[in-house]
Every structure is written in structure tokens, then in C-alpha cells.
Specification:
alpha/beta, 45% helix, eight-stranded parallel barrel, 609 residues
Length: 609
């Protein structure tokens, strides 16, 4: 890779600081004077142009200047790019077991800067340390305040605003299951409102982030608190209108933020749910009373999150309802990494494109992508850089269709090849007529070999669906050398699909020779694939995250191994006449009988887990 020298005297100090930080990994070299290969000029838009004296990056913001540097690394020339958003960032989920190591978080920040982002949120439910709260973040890889300060210093050097994204009402189920949380527990997931001990705890949360980050903004959560006031609070105080209790708690938390010099934002969904007859966030007929809107503290920003709609008119209408609160919302879109083994571009693109278009029409100036890790954070995060780079293309006014350009950029930024990430994404096969809220790969990863909940839900008893799914796996497996974790996942799912199809066919005919082949060939193949996947899972986890949290998926994989050995034993017993049948394999597929969700816990057992 060529060295890109830049001259200290002619470079803006903010850009110079960032280039020095980026030089830890990328070939930027500062010179005190003389001939430079990379020049930065202030202008009205982003241009990257080759000239006789080197490459000139014309920029309008620090973020665009660093994006220009990234494009220069990739040998790209462009004219007239301009970001649609003043604040453009990502939210990194550090709560679904996976807490990024400082070294990996810094690598992510470097790539964000070179892609043109200027904000990063750290989503932390209980994964940070609070004084005199030993149960908070216990064995969860929780960040110390010193660690977050180090990340904040690093982000600031790259022109990135680091914002704490926490929870001060709901989504605290891990902490609230501890004995030490009883004084502040309303329900299994929600804090006890109007309780002094609760606000002493929240004050510590706010003090942590106020002291850790330069940013005076903080995301305080408040989403999906469906059972607010319906546990211990109801026993103590009786029924209170949800709107009123929600706003009263918000007002008290905002007062604590104000005292710490912080400006809060919240997820907006509960206002919509409480005003909807069906408790649906996206009910555009929701009724939010004027007195409720008036009671929302004026310094609170609302974050409209939507990762699901493909109709631009839904985004338009939802933004308009948010604006009726008398404030412009932030937009939280999504790069689909949750319930996925790899980034899913098909699901992402169908939703992000209309979202960005609507935000442009409605004048939204603050936008970020979430990268959730629901159900154990087992998505190989390196594949997500494809979505991060693609999303930046859209924000800067391009259509994201130039895969060749994106592949060049991904390689220059030392990400996994964009093309390989797209190939891995194709393994997330879309079953016709199915809602792919949970990816098909994940369903089959966790599907039990005897119970077959996922097999039934995905209608894999239908030969044409099974054939197309296997075909979707086959091509990527030959060309994923940069994503060994994805390749191992694909091979494991392939082996499981083949085993179950042969198992059911042989069992239906009581073909003992066929069942013996399942025992002697298919089960060993699956166990070998499980072992390889477990090794690749551990390798990608330890490259990205603290060790805490890895045990969840390892326990699941160990359970899978035991269940396949159980299948082997049952087939032996059947062959030897010890048992006359395997009842689980005789239950017919019934479209009415499948889990309402397709998480691991729903697929691994039929009873209590």
C-alpha cells in the first residue's frame, strides 16, 4: 500500500490529529513541510481528485475530510458528496453478552472515521461499573469509567462524538434478577418508579457517563417498558395511567441529567404504544393526548427507531407524529446483525433505503444505525462493516449500488472484503412467505435434531424449499476465506439439513440401513462441523470481545452436541429393538404448532428451559 504523506502546516489541526491516530494502522505520514501526497482544502462538499501534486481532498466537515482520506486510500475519485445529516453515527450493542475490547472498539472507531461517521453510541444496559453496586455488571465484562474515558479520548481524536446509550427504566432484566436489586425492582425488567433508591441508582449511572464522555448528550433508554407500574409499584400505589407514570419518571431522570449538565434523549416507542389500542409502536392512528406531549421535558430528544418498514409513507407519517411533539426526532435505523450469524444485507437494504429517503424529505438532521446483538451476539461482527460502508454511501448521497467501489474501499480500510460479506449475506436465505425476523441460519443453528421446531416453522419438509435453502448455502461456502466463521456456520447448517432430511426419510420407511447410515455418517459429520464452528466462534469472539458472555453460546453448542449423541443412542436402541419408535419424529408438521418466537430458548426445548 502506498504511503500518503500530508503536510503539517497546510492541514487543519483537527484533521492532523485524526491522521496521526489513523496512522497507527493506515499509511498516513506527516511531514513538516515539502512535498505532500495528500492535500486538504475547505469547501462546500466532498471532492477527492488526483492532480500533478498528489491527491486533493476538498471537504465541508471534519467527517467528510476523513471520509475523503479513506476514499483516497482506496484509489477512488469523487465529486460533490455531501452528508445528509449533521450527526451521523452507529450504535454498538455492548449488552447482549458481547462487550468490545478496547483494542477492537478503537479499530471500529478508525473505520467509522474513514467511512465518514461522526458519532458512536455505546449501548450498555448493565455493562459498566457503578460504585457500591457490586451486582451491577457482575461477571458481565463491564467497562470501568477509565476504560470509557480512554475510548472517548480516542474517539475525540478521530472527530467522533462518543455518547453513552443506557437504560434508566426498562431492559435491565440481567441486573434485576440479582438479589441486590430488590429495592428498585418493579417487574422482572423494569425499575421501580417513584422510589428514592431507584433515583440514587440512576444518579450513579448518569454520573458515570457524565464523567466518562466529553459529549453532553446521553441516551437514557425508556423503550419497551410494557409492564411499567404493574408489579411492585401496583401493589404499593395502585393503578396509575401509564402516560403519567412514564412522564413523571422521565421528569425525575431528566432533572438528574440536568444537574450533571447532560441533555437526554429517549427511544420514543412507549408514547406510541400507550396511545395505541393494540399497543403497536407503528400504529399511525395512535392517540397521544396533548397533556402528555406537554409534559415531556423540553430538553428531551425523541429517537424514532424503525428497522422494519419498507413503505416510505410509514416513515413519513411516523416522523410527522414525532414532530407533533414540537421537536425534531433523531432517526435510529438498523443494520441487521441481530438473530443473525452474519450481517444480512437483503433485510437491511429493503428497509434502510426508504428510511433514508424519508429522512431527507422530512429534514431529519440526526441519524444513526443500530447494530443489535439479540439472543447472544453471535453475529460475526467483521461482516457488519459491509453494512457500515454501504450505509455511509447512502448518507453521502450515493445509491450504494457500486459493489466494485465498496469492495475497494473495504480492502483499503482493512475490513473484510465487501464482496465476501455480501456473499455471506446470501446464506440468509429468505424462505418464501416467511417473516425473517430471525434469520434462517440461526433457526437451523439452534434447531433441535429430535424436536425440529425450526424445521417445521420454515416448512423444510417441503422438498423445493429445502433444495433452495441448500443451494443458497452451497455457493458461498466455496469463497469465504476471509470469513471462516461464516463458512463454518454454513457447513454446520448444511450438515444439519442433510441429516434431518435423511433421518425423516429413513424413519418414515423404517429403513434400518438408512438409519444406520445416519448414525455412522451424518451424525459424525454434524458433530465434526459443530466442533469446527465452536472453534471459529471462539476465535471471532476473542478477537472482538471480552471473555465474559462467550459462555452463553458455548453452553448452547455443548447442548447441541449432547442432543445429537442422544439421537445416536435412540437410533441404536431402535435398531436393537430396545424401543419401538421415536415419538418426536412421528409428530406431523402443523402450521398452528410452532413457537411464537424463534430464539434459541424457543427452539432448544419443548418445556421449561
Amino acid at each position: 500500500m502506498n504511503t500518503f504523506s500530508w503536510s503539517v502546516p497546510e492541514t487543519d489541526p483537527g484533521i492532523a490529529t485524526a491522521l496521526r491516530t489513523l496512522a497507527e494502522e493506515y499509511p498516513f505520514k506527516e511531514t513538516a513541510g515539502g512535498t505532500a501526497a495528500l492535500h486538504f482544502r475547505k469547501g462546500d462538499a466532498l471532492n477527492v481528485e488526483n492532480g500533478e501534486d498528489g491527491i486533493t481532498v476538498t471537504y465541508d466537515t471534519l467527517a467528510s475530510a476523513l471520509r475523503g482520506a479513506g476514499l483516497a486510500l482506496a484509489g477512488q475519485t469523487i465529486r460533490g458528496e455531501k452528508c445528509a445529516f449533521d450527526l451521523f453515527g452507529v450504535m454498538l450493542d455492548n449488552s447482549r453478552n458481547a462487550v468490545m475490547t478496547l483494542s477492537y472498539a478503537k479499530a471500529v472507531l478508525r473505520r467509522l472515521a474513514l467511512a465518514g461517521y461522526n458519532m458512536a453510541m455505546l449501548y450498555t444496559e448493565d455493562t459498566y461499573q457503578l460504585p457500591d453496586e457490586p451486582h451491577f455488571g457482575f461477571l458481565r465484562g463491564a467497562y470501568s469509567q477509565a476504560e470509557v474515558r480512554e475510548l472517548d479520548d480516542y474517539a475525540a481524536g478521530l472527530g467522533i462524538e462518543l455518547i453513552g446509550c443506557i437504560q434508566t427504566l426498562g431492559h435491565l432484566g440481567i441486573f434485576l434478577r440479582s438479589a441486590g436489586s430488590r429495592p428498585v425492582r418493579d417487574t422482572a425488567n423494569v425499575l421501580l418508579a417513584d422510589e428514592p433508591e431507584t433515583y440514587r441508582l440512576i444518579e450513579k449511572m448518569i454520573a458515570f457517563w457524565s464523567g466518562a464522555c466529553r459529549s453532553r448528550r446521553i441516551h437514557i433508554g425508556f423503550d419497551e417498558t410494557h409492564d411499567l407500574g404493574r408489579g411492585k409499584y401496583l401493589d404499593r400505589h395502585g393503578w396509575v395511567r401509564s402516560f403519567d407514570l412514564f412522564n413523571r419518571h422521565l421528569q425525575q431522570v431528566c432533572a438528574l441529567c440536568r444537574a450533571a449538565g447532560l441533555q437526554p434523549m429517549i427511544w420514543s416507542d412507549m408514547y406510541f404504544r400507550m396511545g395505541s389500542k393494540t399497543q403497536d409502536y407503528y400504529d399511525t392512528g395512535t392517540v397521544i393526548p396533548d397533556d402528555v406531549k406537554a409534559a415531556v421535558p423540553p430538553d428531551v430528544s425523541l429517537v424514532y427507531w424503525d428497522y422494519y418498514h419498507q413503505d416510505p409513507s410509514v416513515y413519513d407519517r411516523m416522523i410527522e407524529i414525532h414532530q407533533s411533539f414540537g421537536r425534531q426526532p433523531l432517526m435510529g435505523s438498523g443494520l441487521w446483525t441481530w438473530f443473525r450469524l452474519t450481517y444480512d444485507h437483503g433485510q437491511t437494504a429493503a428497509r434502510v433505503v426508504p428510511c433514508v429517503e424519508s429522512c431527507r424529505r422530512k429534514g431529519i438532521r440526526e441519524f444513526f444505525f443500530t447494530l443489535w446483538g439479540d439472543d447472544g451476539a453471535y453475529c460475526g461482527f467483521d461482516s457488519a462493516f459491509a453494512g457500515i460502508l454501504w450505509g455511509a454511501e447512502l448518507a453521502y448521497g450515493r445509491d450504494g449500488q457500486d459493489a466494485g467501489r465498496l469492495d475497494c474501499v473495504s480492502r483499503a480500510l482493512k475490513c473484510v472484503s465487501y464482496n465476501q460479506a455480501m456473499t455471506a449475506s446470501e446464506m440468509n436465505y429468505q424462505i418464501p412467505g416467511q417473516d425473517n425476523g430471525v434469520g434462517t441460519l440461526s433457526v437451523m443453528l439452534w434447531d433441535d435434531p429430535l424436536l425440529g421446531f425450526g424445521w417445521r416453522k420454515l416448512k423444510l419438509d417441503q422438498p423445493e424449499i429445502r433444495r433452495d435453502f441448500l443451494a443458497a448455502l452451497e455457493k458461498p461456502l466455496s469463497c469465504l476465506n476471509e470469513l471462516p466463521y461464516a463458512a463454518a456456520a454454513g457447513r454446520l447448517i448444511q450438515a444439519k439439513l442433510l441429516l434431518r432430511s435423511r433421518l425423516l426419510a429413513a424413519y418414515a420407511k423404517r429403513d434400518l440401513a438408512g438409519l444406520r447410515a445416519v448414525r455412522e455418517q451424518d451424525i459424525p459429520a454434524v458433530l465434526a462441523a459443530l466442533e469446527q464452528f465452536a472453534l471459529e466462534f471462539r476465535a471471532q469472539w476473542t478477537a472482538h470481545y471480552k471473555y465474559s458472555g462467550m459462555e452463553t453460546v458455548q453452553v448452547r453448542l455443548g447442548g447441541q452436541q449432547v442432543r445429537f449423541r442422544e439421537l445416536d443412542l435412540r437410533l441404536q436402541e431402535l435398531e436393537n429393538g430396545v424401543i419401538a419408535s421415536i415419538p418426536e419424529l412421528e409428530v406431523p408438521t402443523d402450521g398452528r404448532c410452532h413457537p411464537s418466537s424463534l430464539r434459541y430458548v424457543d427452539l432448544a426445548a419443548a418445556g421449561l428451559f
